[in-house]
# Entry
Amino acid sequence: MATTGSPGAPRQARALALARRPKLWLFPSVLCALVAVLLSLLYMGGIVNPNGNLHRLPIALVNADRGAPPPGRAVNSGTELTRAVVAGTPGETVDWKQTDEAGAHDLISSGKVYAALLVPADFTAAVTGLATGGATARPTLTVLTNPALGSLGASMASQIAQGAAHQASLATGRQLLAAVPATKSSGPDGGATARLLLADPFAVTTKAGPIGSHSGLGLSAFYYTLLSVLSGFIGGNIIHNGVDGALGYSDSEIGPWHTRRPTVPISRTQTLLLKMVMTAGIMLLTTSLVLLCTVGILGMDAPHMAMLWLFAYCASLAVGLGVQAINAAFGGIGQLVSMFVFIALALPSSGATVPLQAVPAFYRFLGAFEPMRQLSDGIRAILFFDARSDAGLARGWIMIAVGVVLALAFGFGMTRYYDRKGLHRWTPQPSD
# Structure
């Protein structure tokens, strides 16, 4: 075989000479620019203005006030406050779910609300006591947050509930000040201290819902979902490239070692079947290792480990099968397409870090079918909500099944079409 510099050896190209060819730059430049623009708009577009995009954030509102209406009033103070809270919320920013205490705790336990604003049973008595001077305690409202739905969503809901309670307190204060003469007082300050208390009479306390100390402040569900999706996405692409290299349809290059195996004549459909079978087997290994590392080594809170493993395996498998189907259909750019389907579009529409109620409508639309939202809800239900089906687990299982069926139908539909058209991948090569 001729070597470089010997007579008859092919002349090697020079990098700088090739770099002067505009056509060589065109395709990668356009593709890289398009990816940069899309990723920037997709990722940042979902998080830059959560308050401005707020739409019907679910918060429970509980009126447990059992007091009789004060003289001259048709309803008690708790009812007046809850009505003022609902009426004082601008536009469609909050979805106030009025319920009783048991209902509020059920909504929190099933992940249906980000927080709850609770009006106590003695609220009317405490408010009346302020006006008559017979109060023994300041009226206190309680905001109960749900950190299992994510720290950002719980924080936003808590701020909204506290703000609504403060506005109601100021409104009630104006009524109390109008009913109490300015000269009515005790003490040398002419009642200034008492009137200052009446101007903003309600106290608001905040309590965080129960969550384990090894749960990442509620973010462990998102990161475990991300691990499951990445296991399927990266593992699927590794299997795709490994099989193509082993069957001689792509070069295998590790460091300076480059090989090209003899091409094995095999149809596209059989190749896809092989990749999907390998995906199902290898996901068993990766799912087990993820559980071992996160729970066994790092000590992540996971009360339903068997259910977590099974759900995560099926989730990774659905993603892996989807990757194989997309790669089989789109060829060389399949990995880029699957990256957008399972990562770029899925992350900002997952609702796992920024609530879907705080992102633009486009992401709420994506969240209806993008896999990460469905998988995140299912894993969150397993980790934080006692594996309740109504906390998102049932929807997660349904969407996994739908994803598997779509991957199989799309993948084998495309490969069978290519095979019938005679679009075979193999090129006959001698086997040395």
